[in-house]
Design goal:
This protein is mainly α. It is built from four helices and no strands. The two termini are about 45 Å apart. This is HTH psq-type domain-containing protein.
Length: about 90
Amino acid sequence: MTAAFRSLKEDGMPLLKASRVYHVPETTLRDRVLLKIDPDTCVMGKVPMFDQFQEAKIVEHFKNMAALIWIHATGVCGCCKYIWCPAWYTHQG
């Protein structure tokens, strides 16, 4: 986005060409050129709710819960094929 805006302002590249070269939506680029949107503010998407450590903990929790549900539904551990495996927490299947 910044490179497309710079090409428009500094190099005089046409708007349509800049949008195609830099794969930026034409209307978004036009809004920044016409100062409908501040060109310096470029927020893409939402701010993450969790940091990477928290997300990894949640993923691990979901994996453990899925394994527990599998054991309760089938009566068979998915890793070692034991019936009601006593150490299913230690398995990494």
